[in-house]
Amino acid sequence: MKTADSLALRHDGRRLRILDQTLLPHREEWLEVPDPDAMVLHIRRLAVRGAPLIGVAAALSLATFAQDGAGPAELRLAAAHLRRARPTAVNLMWAMDRMGAILDGGRCKDDVVMAELIAEAEAIFVEDVALCEAMARQGLGLFGEGEAVLTHCNSGGLATAGIGTALGLIRRGFEAGRVTHVFVDETRPLLQGARLTAWELARLGIPHTLLTDSMAAILLREGRVQRVLLGADRVAANGDFANKVGTYGLAVQCRHHGVPFHPVAPWSTVDLACPGGDAIPIEQRDPAEVRGTWAAAGTPAFNPSFDVTPAHLVTSLVTDRGVFTAAELASGILSRPRLRPTP
C-alpha cells in the first residue's frame, strides 16, 4: 500500500495510525490501529471523527486488514462492523459500500481481492483530498472583502483527509484576504470547537475568538459576523442536513438576523436514498457526556450527537459539484442526473 499522510491519519505502507483527537489540544499522541475492531472503538470514542475522515479511516483499516492476510469472509464481517460504527455520518456507509462492492465482485483469488481493496482505499483517500480543494474553489466566491465568519464544531483537517470542508473553505478565504477573523463555537458537550477548531486555526495562524454556543446570537445581532459556515454529516435529497447538535439553533438565529448560513459538504455526504431530514438517523450518546463532572451522578440527560436543519434555512449548500441555493435544493437539484457521475 502507498503512504497516506494527513493531519489526523497516517499510513506508511504497512501500519495505520491515527491522531487521538480526544487528547487535543494538550497532547498530540498517535495510535496504531491494528485491525478493524480497534478502528470501530476509536470511531465510537471519537478518537477519529469527522464524517469524511471516518470513511477514509475505515477504508484504510479494511485494506490494511486484507494486507495482513484476512480472507473475504473476515473482511465482509469487518466491513459490516465498521459500517455500523456511527449511524448518522453517511460517508462511512458510502466508503464501506465501495469496499463491499469489491468483496462482492466475484473475484476468486484472495490476492486479487487484497490488491483491489488496497487500491480502492487509496483512491478514497486521494479523492477526499481533492474534494476538499474543490469545495474551497466552489465556495470562495461567497466571501466579500475582509469578512468575519463563525463556525460550529470542527470541519477542518482533523475531520477530513485534506484541508477540510467548511474550515478548508475558511482557510482558503483567509489566504485570499477575504476572511479576517473566525469566531469559534465551543460546541457542547464535547467541545470540538474549543479543543479542535481553535487548535487548527492557531496552527494556521488565522485570527480567531472562542465563545460558548449560547453567545453566538449576540455577535449575529451586533453585526460582527458576516456569515456562518459549518460542515455536515449527512445531506438528504431535499437539502435537509444533519450536523453537530447546535447547528439547527444557529441556523434559526441566522435567519432571524439576516446572516448567510452555509453548510459545506462533499458529494460523499449527500444521501440521495434519504428523502428528507426526518429520515436521517440521529445517534444518541452517553448522557454522562452532558453531565460531565458538574452535574449530580444519575441526573437524566438528553444527548443527541446531531440535529437536523431544514433546507429552507440554508442560504446555500456548498459542495465540490456546485453551490446550491435553498430554492434549488427545494427543486430537487441534488437528484438531477447531471450531478450524479463521479467527477
Automatic annotation (TrEMBL):
Catalytic activity: 5-(methylsulfanyl)-alpha-D-ribose 1-phosphate = 5-(methylsulfanyl)-D-ribulose 1-phosphate
List of catalytic residues: D233 (proton donor)
Biological process annotations from GO: L-methionine salvage from methylthioadenosine
GO molecular function terms attached to this record: S-methyl-5-thioribose-1-phosphate isomerase activity
EC number of this enzyme: 5.3.1.23
This protein's pathway: Amino-acid biosynthesis; L-methionine biosynthesis via salvage pathway; L-methionine from S-methyl-5-thio-alpha-D-ribose 1-phosphate: step 1/6
Keywords attached to this entry: Amino-acid biosynthesis, Isomerase, Methionine biosynthesis
Residues that, per the record, bind substrate: R49, G50, A51, R86, Q192, N243, K244
Pfam families per the UniProt record, alphabetical: IF-2B (PF01008)
Function (record text): Catalyzes the interconversion of methylthioribose-1-phosphate (MTR-1-P) into methylthioribulose-1-phosphate (MTRu-1-P).
Family matches, as NCBIfam families: eIF-2B_rel (TIGR00524), PRK05720.1 (NF004326), salvage_mtnA (TIGR00512)
Family: Belongs to the EIF-2B alpha/beta/delta subunits family. MtnA subfamily.
Stated name of the protein: Methylthioribose-1-phosphate isomerase
Lineage, highest ranks first: Bacteria, Pseudomonadati, Acidobacteriota, Holophagae, Holophagales
Gene, per the UniProt record: mtnA
